[in-house]
Specification:
heterodimer; A: 483 residues; mainly alpha; two-stranded antiparallel sheet; 2 strands; 1% strand; globular; B: 170 residues; Four Helix Bundle (Hemerythrin (Met), subunit A); 6 helices; 72% helix
């Protein structure tokens, strides 16, 4: 049975390099105590970029490791996506973490280790591997969210995330076992075969398995009604970790969902499409409406990200090769815009120590570059033309519309307009309101933060004005899923 | 082999014990007793593994769950103040009972209604060797990811329990 398995370890070099990077960073932190701690962040980011470059070497590969890990353009796409995200997060954390902790090595180590889990979720074609990768990502995030162990909010957010996350994992596991029970396999391709040849009547165990798997993954991507942990975890975490939760954790969830539903469950599309469509509708409506009432920027971004998850879930509900492409395009656009917003939030928090929306008043006078980046990124999240969000949302909505989910698109466009309102509320503080008394002076924004913000803004505009390059990459990445 | 009378009787006894202990875990007021019933539930599950001729998993279950995890939980309970060791009354009791009853009904229906895929593979000669083979050949990736996961758990435990450092004001 094990004959003919391809155990070619060279396919996993990027992951081994990431583990090596972790060891190097923890070791440097321990054995080079004189080194400035911000350097750990730069080394982590440089290492991640290097791993991203190595991963690019696997473009156009189509191979697998023991039929479990597939290395193709889809995997390469997400490898680069996740290490790029992690690199930006490491850079963004540099100042804050070095100030707060004497040994910040573990912080970067956990970020890099969680990246391995995220890559595993996208690359695996087998349920056990997907599950354990999901746990690797989740465990790292539980610790990162509760990293400020003497901060009550961080503890609260971390505990809620841990308990609900463990519960969700258990549900996912139970769903997996039911699917295994009726198909006799945990490999996606064999599950598809097992579901295709029903031995007779409708299999209720399959439906229950699907419900449990959707519930488990719904928790991980924070879809309504499984979103209760999100605002607290977002508020309690360090701002860079909040950004990380909003991008990598969600993108990994969608990477897993996309490959699982297209490879294993596509044959029973009608049995799960309706429930994901329902969840998508609830997520869009609740996320965007509750966001209207928030006054903390991190809680607002939490609900805004829930709304964005709703848009992305529509693509899963209407899954075909067009919506899969649109989903990846939207994920990239969302990642760049969301990161840009968070870079501004992090820079502002570093300088002022405040994260209420009202504290953003007068940003245009105090930190003009950050203010303009904030405006551009928020317009992009709302989906205004010129910016990435417009193109990606347009492609996404159009592909879902073509599948006949007209009512979902109606909800999506309406809630997009609603979202513009709360994004504009932030901009009103930043641009219209005058700075508080005695705080009119320019703030010394570090070059690194200005540079990151500007670079991400260039990305937002690039995708917004010239999306063809992204479309080409994404087309190659999703082609392998639909053959 | 599962058709032997002895196995069938053992299965029913073990199942009844396991379920009864699981129910008691939820029902008893005193947390220490709940932990002890939980340990018995673990042992019952180990017995069911033996009925399925999964001897290695059964031994691992007894060593890790019935042994280590229960002891750990007993310690955790003993270290909490005595006053917090009781499950208190809650108004959600009735709704919770109804909900779990419904859930049980759904699961029983699903279990009885479904045509389960039955493996036609023969029994293992030695499960430990087969497990080792599986872990190091086809499932080597999840096995290695699991070791990375343990590393994360270890780093996390150290980070979250480390003493306050003098200049660590977070």
């Amino acid at each position: 049975m094990t004959e003919g398995l391809n155990l070619d370890y060279s396919l996993l070099i990027p992951e081994f390099l990431l583990v090596g990077l972790v060891v190097a960073i923890v070791g440097l932190d321990l054995y080079a105590p004189k080194m400035k701690k911000t350097w750990l962040a730069y080394i982590a980011a440089a290492g991640l970029v290097a791993v991203g470059a190595v991963s690019l070497g696997y473009w156009d590969t189509d191979d697998n490791f023991a039929n479990i890990i597939v290395v193709d353009d889809y995997t390469t796409f997400f490898r680069v996506f996740f290490v790029a995200t992690a690199a930006v997060i490491c850079l963004a954390s540099a100042t804050m973490v070095a100030e707060k902790f004497r040994h910040p090595g573990e912080y970067y180590a956990l970020i890099i280790l969680s990246t391995i889990g995220a890559i595993g979720m996208a690359a695996s074609r087998e349920l056990m591997t997907a599950y354990i990768s999901l746990e690797l990502l989740s465990f790292s995030l539980y610790v990162l969210v509760s990293y400020q162990k003497f901060d009550a909010k961080s503890n609260e957010g971390g505990l809620k995330y841990l308990l609900l996350g463990a519960f969700a994992s258990a549900m996912f596991l139970y769903g997996m076992s039911l699917i295994y029970g009726i198909t006799g396999s945990t490999y996606y391709s064999e599950i598809a075969v097992g579901l295709q040849n029903p031995t007779g009547d409708f299999q209720w165990a399959m439906l229950m398995g699907l419900v449990l798997i959707v519930t488990g993954l719904g928790f991980k991507v924070a879809a309504v009604p499984f979103h209760m942990w999100t605002p607290d975890a977002y508020e309690g975490a360090f701002p860079p970790i909040t950004a990380y939760l909003g991008t990598t954790s969600k993108a990994a969830g969608f990477a897993l969902m996309l490959v699982l539903f297209s490879q294993a469950f596509e044959v029973v599309h009608d049995d799960w499409s309706w429930m994901i469509a329902g969840i998508a509708a609830a997520t869009m409506i609740l996320g965007n409406l509750v966001a209207l009432q928030q006054h903390n920027i991190k809680r607002l971004m939490a609900y805004s990200s829930i709304g964005q998850v709703g848009y992305m879930l529509m693509a899963i509900a209407a899954l075909n090769s067009d919506t899969a492409q649109a989903l990846l395009v939207h994920l990239v656009g969302y990642m760049v815009s969301n990161m840009a917003v968070f870079i501004v939030i992090i820079a502002w928090y570093n300088m002022t120590g405040k994260d209420e929306i009202a504290d953003f008043r007068g940003m245009r006078e105090r930190a003009p570059l950050l203010a303009w980046v904030l405006a551009g990124a928020l317009f992009s999240l709302a989906g205004l033309p010129l910016f990435a969000g417009f193109v990606t949302k347009f492609v996404l909505f159009q592909s879902v519309w073509n599948e006949g989910f007209y009512w979902l698109i109606a909800i999506a466009t309406t809630t997009s307009v609603v979202s513009l309102y709360y994004y504009l509320q932030i901009m009103r503080q930043a641009f219209v309101e005058k700075p508080a008394e005695g705080e009119e002076s320019r703030l010394p924004v570090p070059l690194l933060m200005n540079g990151l913000a500007a670079a991400l803004m260039v990305g937002v505009l690039y995708i917004g004005l010239y999306p063809q390059a992204l479309f080409d990459v994404v087309e190659a990445a999703t082609d392998v899923l639909f053959v | 082999m599962i058709e032997d009378n002895g196995i069938v009787i053992a299965f029913w006894i073990l199942s009844a014990t396991t379920i009864a202990c699981a129910l008691m875990t939820a029902a008893v007021r005193e947390l220490v007793q709940a932990v002890l019933f939980l340990a018995l539930t673990f042992v019952g599950a180990a017995g069911i593994y033996i009925c399925l001729s999964a001897d290695f998993v059964a031994v691992a279950q007894i060593l890790i769950y019935a042994g280590a995890v229960s002891v750990l939980m007993t310690f955790a309970v003993m270290l909490t103040p005595a006053a917090d060791r009781h499950n208190s009354e809650t108004i959600f009791q009735a709704p919770a009972l109804v909900l779990s009853g419904l859930l049980l009904a759904v699961i029983v229906f699903v279990v009885l209604d479904t045509d389960w895929a039955i493996s036609d593979a023969g029994a293992f000669q030695t499960t430990a060797a087969s497990l080792g083979e599986a872990f190091l050949k086809p499932y080597v990736v999840p096995f290695e990811v699991a070791s990375v996961l343990l590393m994360v758990a270890m780093i996390g435990a150290i980070v979250l329990t480390r003493e306050l450092e003098e200049d660590d004001d977070a």
